Amino acid sequence: MARTGDDSWDLASSVGATATMVAAGRAIASRSPDPLIDDPFAAPLVRAVGLDFFTRMLDGDLDLSQVPDASPERLQAMIDGMAVRTKFFDDYFTDAAATGVRQAVILASGLDARAYRLAWPSGTVVYEIDQPAVIEFKSGTLADIGATPTAERRTVGIDLREDWPAALRAAGFDPAAPTAWLAEGLLIYLPPEAQDRLFDLITALSAAGSTVATEYAPGIMDFNAEQARELSAPLREHGLDIDMSALVYAGRRSHVMDYLASLGWQVSGIPRDDLFARFRRPVPTAESVDPLGEIVYVSATLS
Ligand SMILES: C[S@@+](CC[C@H](N)C(=O)[O-])C[C@H]1O[C@@H](n2cnc3c(N)ncnc32)[C@H](O)[C@@H]1O
C-alpha cells in the first residue's frame, strides 16, 4: 500500500516490518562464526513479532536455493552488511561516551536494543523515539524476557513527522547537554523535506560537543521501483511481504553529508566497502550490490 503523510504501523506491517527485517539480520549476524556484533535481544524480539518468514529464517527453515538473487554470497553479504552497520553505530556511541557525552537519542529506534546491550557509562540517559506501537512492543517484549536496560532508558512514542522535539523535551531531554544522536535506517522512509527538517531540528536541539550518525543511500535518488519489485517478487513467494518500492521515498533529496555541513557540523563518511575492509569482512561482489547503492556511513560533530 502506498505511503501517506500520516500512515502508521506496528512491527509486522509497512515500515515497521523493516525494523523486524534488520533485527533478523542482527540476530543471524550475532550467531555467525567469528561474530562482529552481539545482539542477544534481536532473536527473541523477531520471534515475538511472529512474521513467519523471519521466524523460519532464524530457525534455518528457509530454502531460498531456488530464488535467483538469493545466492549464498548475496545472503552472506546482506548479513555482513548488517554486522558492519551495527558495529559502526555501536562504536559511534562508545566513542561519544568516551568524550563525556551522557545523553543519547535513537531516532526510529525500531528493535534496536542498544539501550539494553551497550556498556553505557553510569548516568547516561538514552531516549528512543519511534511510533507508539513499535515502542510499546519492544518495551513489553524485553520486560517479559527479563531484560533490563544498561542506561536510563526513556521512550517517546511519536511519529517523527509530528512535533517530536516537544515530546522529547517533555520526556526530560536536556538541550543544554551534548547529545549523541542516531538516525539509522530511517532517512529513505522520510520524504526529502522531512529529512532536511529532521536535521534542522536535531541541530537546533544540539549543544556544542553533540554528535550525529546516520547513513546516506545514493541509490534512493534514482531508485528503480520496478526493478526493486522484480527483485523482491521471488521472496514474496516465500512469504516475505515487504515491498520496499512502496515504502521508500525515491527521487532527489539533499545529500545528508552536504546538508549537515551546511548546518555547521564537521562531517565524515565511510563507504560500505571501506567499512567491510575495516572490519575484515569480504567486500561484496558486484552481484551483491544493493538497489540503494553503496551506502555511506556518516558521523558528524558540532563544536
Ligand atoms: C529499517 S527500520 C530501522 C530501525 C532501527 N533504527 C534499526 O536500525 O534497527 C525503520 C524504522 O524507522 C521507523 N520510522 C520510519 N518512519 C518513521 C516516522 N515517520 N516516525 C517514527 N518512526 C519512523 C520505523 O517505525 C522503523 O522502526
UniProtKB/TrEMBL annotation:
Name the enzyme's class. Answer: transferase
GO function terms (MF aspect): methyltransferase activity
Which chain regions cross the lipid bilayer?
none
InterPro entries named among the record's database cross-references: Ppm1/Ppm2/Tcmp, SAM-dependent_MTases_sf, SAM_mthyl_Trfase_ML2640-like
In terms of domain of life, where is this protein from? Bacteria
UniProt keyword terms in alphabetical order: Methyltransferase, S-adenosyl-L-methionine, Transferase
State which Enzyme Commission number(s) the record gives.
2.1.1.-
Is Transferase given among the entry's keywords?
A: yes
By its UniProt entry, which Gene3D superfamilies does this protein fall under? Vaccinia Virus protein VP39
Question: Its function?
Answer: Exhibits S-adenosyl-L-methionine-dependent methyltransferase activity.
What family does this belong to? Belongs to the UPF0677 family.
Q: Which NCBIfam families match?
A: mthyl_TIGR00027
What name has this protein been given in UniProt?
A: S-adenosyl-L-methionine-dependent methyltransferase
- Species source reads Mycolicibacterium chitae
Organism lineage reads as: Bacteria, Bacillati, Actinomycetota, Actinomycetes, Mycobacteriales
